[in-house]
Amino acid sequence: MSLMVVGADNLGSIKNNIESLGFDDIKHISGRKKSVFRSFKLPVNVDMVLVLTDYIHHSAMKKVKQEAKEKNINAIFSRRSWSSIYKKMERRQLLN
């Protein structure tokens, strides 16, 4: 499965934790530069989007949400802590 992470400058150990859940293709963009989101389009081969709300500006969050909705891609909005990310994924029943 593929996952696009939007937000945070550095994923740290979160990337390893996400990989352990079965995501083999992880793409990451920072979310701080407004210029990146002016013409933002989600890649075609993304199964899910994870938005780290601590480190992203509001207009970028709206753009990602709109793109995910249009393409019918599951989007999760979470803080940048592994426990928060895991709980959100668990609530959506995305984990085994």
Tell me the CATH superfamily. Answer: Type I PLP-dependent aspartate aminotransferase-like (Major domain)
Low-confidence stretches: none
The end-to-end distance, rounded to whole angstroms, is 13 Å
- Tell me the number of structural domains: 1
The amount of beta strand, in percent, is 15-25%
Characterize the quaternary organization of these chains: single chain
* Name of the CATH class: Alpha Beta
Strand order of the largest sheet: 2-1-3-4
Write the CATH architecture name: 3-Layer(aba) Sandwich
Instruction: State the secondary-structure class.
Output: alpha/beta
What would the principal axes of the Cα set say about the shape?
globular
Number of helices: 3
InterPro entries: UCP020408
Family: Belongs to the UPF0751 family.
Pfam family, one: DUF2325
Protein name: Dihydroorotate dehydrogenase
Spell out the blueprint of helices and strands.
Elements: E1 2-6, H1 14-20, E2 25-29, E3 48-52, H2 58-70, E4 74-78, H3 82-91
Parallel strand pairs: 1-2, 1-3, 3-4
